Amino acid sequence: MTKADLIAFERRIAAKYDDGELPYLVHFCGGNEDQLIEIFKDIKPDDYVFSTHRNAYHALLHGIPPDELEAKIMAGRSMFVFDRARNFFSSSIVAATHAIAAGVAWALKRRGSKKRVWCFVGDGAEDEGHFYEAARYVDGWDLPCTFIIEDNDRNVNATKRERRGDTEYGFLWPSCVDRYWYKPTYPHGGTGTLGWLQFKREAQVVIPPDRQDSTLPELLPDPIKYMDAVKYSMEMLAREGAIFIGYNVRYGSAYGSLKNIPEDQRLETPLAENLMAGLGMGMSLEGFRPVVFFERHEFIMNAMDAIVNTLDVIETISDGEFHMPVIIKAVAGSVKPFYAGYTHTHNYADEIRRFVHFPVYEPQTGPEVLAAYALAREAKGPVMVSEMKALY
Ligand SMILES: Cc1ncc(C[n+]2csc(CCOP(=O)(O)OP(=O)(O)O)c2C)c(N)n1
After folding, report:
1. pLDDT at residue 169, as a whole number
2. What is the pLDDT of residues 123-162, one digit of tens each?
3. 25: Cβ–Cβ under 8 A, 6 or more apart, which residues?
4. CATH architecture for the domain at 226-391
5. Cα separation, 278 vs 282, whole angstroms
6. Torsion of CA 270, 273, 274, 280, to 10 degrees
7. Ligand 1 atom closest to Cα of residue 94
8. Helix axes 273-285, 98-111, angle to 10 degrees
9. Which ligand 1 atom is the nearest neighbour of the CA of 305?
10. Taking a C-beta distance cutoff of 8 angstroms, is the pair 133, 311 a contact?
């Protein structure tokens, strides 16, 4: 792909957009061809590339054939370009990929793979706390991941100085973060014309999948106690190679439920819930079975971006190319043996169930715990199991 090829590709799509043939939100690149051609010289065909809403050049330079990419764009997938065979992943949610990229890099390092992860980041995404969590984690554990800030000094329209004041000057990212600068050819979205106001065809709107059933089977009474069932389920998962992710999972034992799990399968993380979820999601792309542990429901709220905007929708937005069989193990706080306080004792299972399409099980007895985790272990996609601290 030459510079001329890249420019010609976007011009062709832009013309269709201006002509009303493309009734979808699109973001063109332009102006960064030389820089990207240089960067992609270091990116190997089977490396992972995590891209953004502005992904056409990344996709083309990572080997997605122009006609395939054009077909995706014309079908309304310009923000959702995925290619499992080429390890190409994009997101229309700013900063949603950073933790997932870190998770893939963790998995590659653990497997001793030679592949690397390259995660493109806008200077707007650089404003997000998600970026800080992921970059610091990659740097701290020396993971094979490079973040590349594509600095066009623009978050939609606002410059860095207009939105951050002077703070960024003097702020240094670690060496896993590179940056290049460019002046964009096109406006933030579209081409700057109003040609699209007269669409020649209708957009195909994505229909969300049905929500999955969260009811557990009726079970005969069984003497197994709640906590014993939790521990047993964790051991079964561990035997199958699961990785338990979160804080207090290694230098603690998740309320005792992970006591018997080998240390090597317990990944202590920073106190960064969105990162925890993203790490699990990334690892799942490399064949690991992650169990992400949240010690209270309130703390899941910090990870809701990852859970709602990517984990829950990944199969739909990637047209079935990517699957993330992540188990969320969450504990709903209790008022006994002492009251941990109003912001530590909510049970948000119902609310979360309304946000997501995957099952959210709430076992109330030992046998139900076994059943919930048995279903979770079989699942091809995400599952949440909400344990009741009061029943431990
Ligand atoms: C979490 C989130 N917030 C806001 C948006 C809306 N949005 C889409 S692109 C964009 C600008 C992002 O700027 P930057 O990361 O610098 O990328 P650029 O568009 O300049 O390539 C915004 C605010 C979004 N998609 N996701």
Report:
1. 60
2. 999 999 999 999 999 999 999 999 999 999 999 999 998 8
3. 78, 79, 189, 190
4. 3-Layer(aba) Sandwich (3.40)
5. 6
6. 80
7. 26
8. 50
9. 1
10. no
Q: Which two tokens stand for residue 67?
A: 């006609």
In this prediction, residue 229 carries a pLDDT of 96
Residue identifier of the C-alpha nearest atom 4 of ligand 1: 94
Strand order in the sheet with 88-90: 88-90, 48-51, 117-122, 145-151, 177-181
How confident is the model over 22-61, as pLDDT tens digits? 999 999 999 999 999 999 999 999 999 999 999 999 999 9
How far apart, in Å, do the first and last CA atoms of the chain sit?
59
Strand order in the sheet with 327-332: 266-268, 243-246, 290-294, 327-332, 383-388, 360-361
For the Cβ of 164 lying below 6 angstroms from any atom of ligand 1, the answer is: no
The amino acid at 112: G
C-alpha of residue 122 to centroid of ligand 1, in Å: 7
Query: CATH assignment of 3-197?
Result: 3.40.50.970
- In this prediction, the residues of the chain whose per-residue pLDDT falls under 70 are 168-170, 195-196
Q: Which residue CA neighbors atom 17 of ligand 1 most closely?
A: 122
Q: What pLDDT does 180 receive? A: 97
- Tokens 């950073």 label which residue? 98
Query: Which residue in 277, 325, 270 sits closest to 300, CA to CA?
Result: 277
Q: Which atom of ligand 1 is nearest to the CA of 154?
A: 20
Q: Is there a contact between 60 and 9 (Cβ–Cβ < 8 Å)?
A: yes
Q: Sketch the domain layout of the chain as residue ranges.
A: 3-197, 226-391
Q: Is 115 helix (H, G, I), strand (E, B) or coil?
A: coil
**b/e per residue, 94-131, with b = 16+ CB within 10 A?**
bbbbbbbbbbbbbbbbeeeeebbbbbbbbbbbbbbebb
Instruction: Determine which residue's CA is closest to atom 21 belonging to ligand 1.
Output: 122
Q: 125 CA to middle of ligand 1, Å?
A: 7
Q: What span, in angstroms and rounded, lies between the C-alpha atoms of 184 and 162?
A: 18
Please give the distance, rounded to the nearest whole angstrom, from the Cα atom of residue 186 to the centre of ligand 1: 15
Atom of ligand 1 nearest to the CA of 151: 16
> Are both 3-197 and 226-391 of the same fold?
yes
